[in-house]
Amino acid sequence: MLYRNLASMDVEESIARNPLDGVVLLMGCDKTTPALLMGAASVDIPAVGVSGGPMLSGKYRGTDIGSGTNTWSMSEDLRAGRITLEEFHEAESCMNRSHGHCMTMGTASTMASMVEALAWACPATRRSRRSTRAGTCWRARPAGARSGW
User: Fold this and answer.
1) Where does the chain show beta strands of DSSP type E?
2) Cβ(91)–Cβ(60) below 8 Å
3) How far is CA 21 from CA 35, 45, 61, 95, 103, in A?
4) pTM for this entry
């Protein structure tokens, strides 16, 4: 949570301190998606979130493996002597077999779907920046005002 909140503050400051009319947020995993959304929600300009999508699960000796839990369990197997270093490297080379973000995208896929649904439901996303200040979906803030933490 600490790094997600730090990333959120970085996103807010980056957006707020630049002369932007709107932003496109390129989101990915369970950490960057909420960080970008929280940071953008604190700034008074339209934002659209675009998810890069998940990568395919890896295949190792006929089973699905991922770069999260399987990395930790296999490194413990290596330390315990249940697998060799060559087997570990072979499995590691099979983990990432496509482009995309993390394989799970658990919370991230739900949040990305919500962002898409909210963008269609919010009338302020289809207006100019001037009209969004009076809209119901974006929080109005006087020009030049800093957000408070």
Assistant:
1) 23-27, 47-51, 58-60, 63-65
2) yes
3) 20, 6, 50, 40, 33
4) 0.57
d(CA 55, CA 101): 6
pLDDT at residue 85 is higher than 90:
yes
User: What phi-psi label fits residue 81: left (phi over 0), alpha (psi between -120 and 50 degrees) or beta?
Assistant: left
Q: Give the separation between CA 48 and CA 35, rounded to whole angstroms.
A: 14
Cα–Cα dist 88/54, whole Å: 23
For residue 33, is pLDDT > 70? yes
Print the SS3 string covering 40-59.
Answer: HHCCCCCEEEEECCECCCEE
The token duo for 13 is 């400051």
- Whether the CB-CB separation of 78 and 85 falls below 8 Å is answered with yes
Of residues 93 and 136, more confidently modeled: 93
pLDDT at residue 2 greater than cutoff 50: yes
Biggest distance spanned by C-alpha atoms of the chain: 64
**Residue 130: helix, strand or coil by DSSP?**
helix
Amino acid at 96: N
